[in-house]
Specification:
Elements: H1 18-23, H2 26-35, E1 38-41, E2 46-49, H3 52-59, E3 65-66, H4 73-78, H5 89-97, H6 103-126, E4 130-132, H7 134-150, H8 157-171, H9 178-204, H10 210-215, H11 223-237, H12 239-253, H13 256-264, H14 269-279, E5 286-290, E6 294-296, E7 299-301, E8 306-309, H15 311-314, H16 349-367, E9 372-373, E10 389-390, E11 396-397, E12 401-403
Parallel strand pairs: 2-8
Antiparallel strand pairs: 1-2, 3-5, 4-12, 5-8, 6-7, 9-12, 10-11
The structure holds protoporphyrin IX containing FE.
Residues 82-83, 94, 101, 146, 149, 232-233, 236-237, 240-241, 244, 277, 282-283, 286, 338-340, 344, 346-348, 351-352 line the site of protoporphyrin IX containing FE.
């Protein structure tokens, strides 16, 4: 099915400035939800679907809202992979890769090593009294955890983080910058080599990792498929947990009364995680392509139409979440969309929940006494010495500069 790269007949056309979206997409999303819940946005080259209920509806119909988007930059960067496949192809790859990321496996196989790595990283900075917690803690932690779960013992956390960045840049290389393509290709070649070496080793000696699980899958998965899916997991498994860590810590440091309650009742870390992911979703939107004509939000989209499911907007939909723009750990439970929905629901959700809410936050707030934001950040301040919120396809803090009482 060829992609239709123009507005559907009758779809409202809304001009949005990408630099404004990068700075703060939420006012534009609120306006779209009110007046044009399905709108063609020329600068994005897609229809944006922005209301919660419509996004959930689309996710329940993967045979209509296909993940096989034509011409996707992700396909160019990593090749065919589960994220851009539909069932049954998607199911074969997903069931091969998923077992090591289930809650029990996270607890039994990985949690101990995750905790050791977090302590090691904190040991390195504890005596300094200041750090950028994104660069010096969260990113190396989640990258090391990902290497472990994947089974990539032949790589370092720095390799994983650098490869992830190079591929993410490739996935958003709409300007076709040759240097960005070159770096993405170097990263993907390095991943292919590392995966080939490990696949050979775990064929003889299975080790419970994602690569091992794919090598020994009931329905065969070939080496190129393993390589491409490892690329997609590295591309998506670093920045999102890092960004939830950063945004949640930043929100709590600006709300001492909430932080005090969470310290007194550690069961609340889980609620902090879900509320952070809802409030500022690390992935703001992802694409789908229509397999047939279909009416949604008052517009009939022709087959081939390109749609972006704007989950960051659905997560601020006032008809579902009261005072949706506020960070409120006490809000009544309602499922958010930050991990997506339907067959592509995030495979790393339990890894992320554990590494951030069970380990990273409790350890950082427990060990770094007198932790505070550097400079004078206030609750309404999204640009401060501590860091700046940025992005709309992916959104997080550029840095999280903090100080504390240095320990010997
Ligand atoms: C807070 C952290 C995370 C968030 C918010 C997040 C968000 C998402 C979202 C929204 C999707 C669906 C995309 C789509 O349908 O097009 C997704 C899929 C996926 N995520 Fe995550 N992710 C996170 C962490 C991780 C981690 C740590 C891993 C790896 C261990 C991971 C691996 C994947 C994979 C493999 C898929 C594709 C699943 C499929 O196609 O069936 N994610 N994630």
């Amino acid at each position: 099915m060829n992609a239709v790269t123009t507005a559907a007949p009758g779809a409202p056309v809304v001009e949005l400035d990408l630099s404004e979206l990068r700075h703060d997409p939420y006012p534009a999303y609120a306006e779209l939800r009110r007046s044009a819940p399905l709108a063609w946005v020329p600068s994005v080259g897609r229809h944006l679907l922005t209301r919660y209920d419509d996004i959930v509806h689309a996710e329940k119909l993967p045979e209509v809202f296909s993940s096989r988007e034509e011409g996707s930059l992700l396909l160019r960067t990593v090749g065919p992979n589960m994220l851009r496949e539909d069932d049954p192809e998607h199911r074969r790859l997903r069931s091969a890769a998923e077992p090591p990321t289930r809650p029990r496996q996270v607890r039994d196989l990985w949690a101990g090593s995750f905790e050791r790595t977090a302590h090691e990283l904190l040991d390195r900075i504890a005596g300094r009294g200041e750090a950028d917690l994104i660069r010096d803690f969260a990113e190396p932690l989640v990258a090391a955890n990902l290497a472990l779960v994947l089974g990539l013992h032949n790589t370092t956390a720095d390799d994983i983080a650098a490869w992830s960045r190079a591929m993410m840049d490739g996935n958003s290389n709409y300007a076709n910058d040759p240097d960005i393509w070159l770096r993405a290709e170097q990263a993907t070649r390095a991943i292919e080599e590392a995966v080939a070496e490990i696949a050979e080793a775990v064929r003889r000696e299975p080790d419970g990792s994602v690569i091992s699980s794919m090598v020994h899958a009931a329905e065969p998965v070939d080496l190129a498929e393993i390589q491409n899916n490892v690329k997609v997991i590295i591309g998506g498994g670093v920045n999102e947990p890092r960004d939830v860590f950063g945004v949640g810590a930043w929100a709590l440091l600006q709300r001492p009364e909430v932080l005090e309650r969470v310290r007194a009742d550690p069961a609340m870390w889980k609620r902090v995680f879900e509320e952070t992911a809802r409030w500022i979703s690390p992935i703001g939107m992802y694409p789908r392509q229509l397999t047939q004509d279909y009416e949604i939000a008052g517009v009939t989209l022709p087959a081939g139409s390109r749609v972006a499911l704007v989950i960051a907007s659905g997560n601020r939909d006032e008809s579902v979440f009261e005072r949706a723009d506020e960070f409120d750990v006490d809000r009544p439970h309602h499922p958010h969309l930050a991990f997506g929905g339907g067959p592509h629901f995030c495979m790393g959700a339990w890894v992320a929940r554990h590494e951030v809410s069970a380990l990273a936050w409790p350890l950082v707030f427990g060990r770094l006494k007198g932790l505070r934001l550097a400079g004078s950040a206030t609750a309404s301040n999204s640009r401060s010495a501590a860091g700046r919120l940025e992005g709309w396809v992916f959104r997080g803090l550029t840095s999280l500069n903090v100080t504390w009482q240095a320990s010997a």
